[in-house]
Amino acid sequence: MQVFHMDHHNSLGKLQASIDGSGKKRKYDDGAQSESSQATSNLGDQPTNRPPGVKAAKGASGKRSIADHQAVTHFQTMCSIKEKDLAVKEKDLAVKERVSKMSLLDSLISKKDSLSEAEKALKQKLLTEMLSN
User: How far is 133 from 129, CA to CA, in rounded Å?
Assistant: First the structure.
């Protein structure tokens, strides 16, 4: 028990010796800071020293930019897919419209009774449109 008490007392003495007057722990007795404890900020291409006491969010900005890049890439992919889907739907609509007109023209051509003036005009318009495409 006495050995524990001595070790505890010795550790407490070392701890007190490493605390400066402001109550903060110091990394080195001579007051110099290591390179890793010296804060730098990477704005642009040149790292700049931050004032003492300013703490940067470590790693969060790098991870966030990667996540943002992935989100932008995903968004661009989704937009590209939507644009292709819209183009396909427009082509499908054009084909359906053409088939509908062809069906109407077919029914006008195959009609046994005489056509009214409106039906004749429609038949002529549809024939002209189908032959021009």
Answer: 6
Look at strands 40-43 and 46-49 and give their pairing. Answer: antiparallel
pLDDT, one tens digit per residue, over 73-132 is: 999 999 999 999 999 999 999 999 999 999 999 999 998 888 899 999 999 999 999 888
Q: From residue 86, how far is each of 53, 92, 120 by CA, in Å?
A: 55, 10, 36
CB atoms within 10 A of CB 122: 16
Q: Find the helix packing angle between 117-132 and 60-109, rounded to 10°.
A: 130
Quote helix, strand, coil % in the chain, to nearest 5: 60, 10, 30
Apex CA 121: angle with CA 117 and CA 122, to 5°? 115
Which pTM value belongs to this model? 0.44
CA dihedral over 119, 125, 130, 131, signed as positive or negative: positive
